[in-house]
Design a protein that fits this description.
Strand order of the largest sheet: 1-4-3-2
CATH superfamily of the largest domain: 2,3-Dihydroxybiphenyl 1,2-Dioxygenase, domain 1
CATH architecture of the largest domain: Roll
Shape: globular
Order of helices and strands: EHEEEEHEEE
Largest sheet: 4 strands, mixed
CATH class of the largest domain: Alpha Beta
Mean pLDDT: 90
Helix content: 10-25%
Structural class: alpha/beta
Number of strands: 8
CATH topology of the largest domain: 2,3-Dihydroxybiphenyl 1,2-Dioxygenase, domain 1
Distance between the termini: 29 Å
Strand content: 25-35%
Number of domains: 2
Low-confidence stretches: none
Radius of gyration: 17 Å
C-alpha cells in the first residue's frame, strides 16, 4: 500500500459524522484518549489516532452526512483497551452515556458499551482470556494474520 501523509495509514478508517467537529475532538480526546493528527479547516474534519493502529475521521454534518438519531443504532466502534474498567470510568467521567456497564463474556473479552455526545456507540473491550471460537459454538474459517506464526488457534 502506498504511503500518503495526508491520510491515516490504517486499512480501515471509520468516518463518523458529528454536529460539532471541534466538540467531538475534545470529547474523543478526553473520554477515550484519541490524539488529533490532522485538522482540516476549523469545523470540517479531523483525523484522530488511538493506540498503535487505530484511527477515525471526524466529519461535519452537512448534506446527506448526518449523525445518528437517538434510539437508533447505525454502527458501533470497538476499541481494544488494556483495562476496560478504567476506560469505562474515564468515558463516564467525560459524559459518555452508559448503555451497558463492563461485563465478562464467554469468548474471553470484558467489554462495555457507551454512547458519545452525538450518539455514536463505542464498545470498549479488554482481552481477559484466550478462547478458541469453537469453545463457544463458533467456527474458525481462517486465522488472523497475527495468529498465523504461533500455535494459538491452529486449525
Amino acid at each position: 500500500m502506498r504511503v500518503n501523509r495526508s491520510v491515516p495509514p490504517m486499512t480501515v478508517v471509520p468516518i463518523l459524522v458529528y454536529p460539532d467537529v471541534r466538540a467531538a475532538v475534545v470529547f474523543l480526546t478526553a473520554a477515550f484518549g484519541f490524539v488529533e493528527r490532522t485538522r482540516i479547516g476549523q469545523s470540517h474534519r479531523a483525523q484522530m489516532a488511538i493506540g498503535e493502529d487505530g484511527a477515525v475521521i471526524v466529519a461535519d454534518a452537512t448534506g446527506d452526512r448526518q449523525p445518528p438519531r437517538s434510539g437508533t443504532m447505525t454502527h458501533a466502534i470497538r476499541v481494544r483497551v488494556d483495562h476496560v474498567d478504567a476506560a469505562f470510568k474515564r468515558a463516564c467521567d467525560h459524559g459518555a452515556v452508559v448503555l451497558e456497564a463492563p461485563v465478562t463474556r464467554e469468548y474471553g473479552e470484558r467489554d462495555c458499551t457507551v454512547e458519545d455526545l452525538a450518539g455514536h456507540r463505542w464498545q470498549l473491550a479488554e482481552a481477559v482470556g484466550d478462547v478458541a471460537p469453537e469453545d463457544f459454538g463458533c467456527e474458525t474459517i481462517s486465522l488472523w494474520p497475527c495468529h498465523q506464526d504461533n500455535d494459538v488457534g491452529k486449525v
